[in-house]
Amino acid sequence: MPGTNARRPARRLVGKSRNPRGPAADPVARIGSVTALADLPLIASGKVREIYEGHDRTLLIVASDRISTYDVVHPTPIPDKGAVLTGLSSFWFERTAGIVANHVISVTDGVPAEARARGMLVRRLEMLPIECVVRGYLSGSGWKDYQRTGEVCGIAVPAGLSESDRLPEPIFTPATKAQEGHDENIDFDQAAELVGDRALAERVRDVSLAVYRHAAEHARERGIILADTKFEFGLDDAGELTLGDEVCTPDSSRFWPADQYAPGRPQPSFDKQFVRDWASSTGWDRNPPAPAVPDDVVARTREKYVEAYERVTGEPFEAWLQRTR
What we know:
Blueprint lengths: L41 E4 L3 E5 L4 E6 L4 E2 L2 E2 L7 H15 L5 E2 L1 E3 L12 E5 L2 E2 L2 E8 L2 H10 L1 E2 L2 E2 L9 E7 L2 E2 L11 H8 L2 H24 L2 E12 L5 E4 L8 E5 L15 H9 L13 H19 L3 H8 L1
Parallel strand pairs: 6-16
Antiparallel strand pairs: 1-2, 2-3, 3-8, 4-5, 7-8, 9-15, 10-13, 10-14, 10-15, 11-12, 15-16, 15-17
């Protein structure tokens, strides 16, 4: 809990890049959404999730079927994507509860029928103003940084590594939460300054690494490499550090099939990198509006998300749908 002299972070509901006007203000934001929920006002909307005001300091977070690349939402939903994200997050929240508290109250009780399978009732948190990224492999912006500087986000790593190589140890590479545009990688000192309490920032770092190691070990047993991931934390009403948002989903992580792993090149994946690669191939300049996603890419993306759920959890995706509906 922050000390008495700590500068407390600005209060946030959950996540980042929320549109206070709500999704009705943007036609693209309506794609794959729950339109309205009885007695629950919509208070914020992001690229993927919508947040509804609950009762007794609770929130209902609903994952839509929207998909974004390069921070722009495409006008084409991916069927069942929201249910996969919520199902996987629920799985990981339960598995990591012994490491850190989380914001989940229920995925059934208090969740309206029209939001079942992709809705989650949670406690309100005061969100910390950083993205908590953990990298176990050299990929994405970490690989680009390494090529340019020989380091990853200011952290020294061995020379001579190739793209997708496993790092000697997982590293914590925080980032800002950009309200618009792209997040920016920052070093730990900058992260501690944003959090306003160095001891709290150190705990966030240590917990992030512990959750990643736990999840990566489980994923490896299931034939998946968890190359990197992103967490978000907040403080509950008692000041306890609490894991929020989503955990180790195809939207927040890089999932690679272990049996196809080959360092020295980009890896096939179970995450939205498939859509990123398609979007890059179109010549799109990464500015709005994003192009519509063709049917074959939609179908393949859905398959990848569902396969990620089934590999990680060890159960059919239909079991999650039946359990929550």
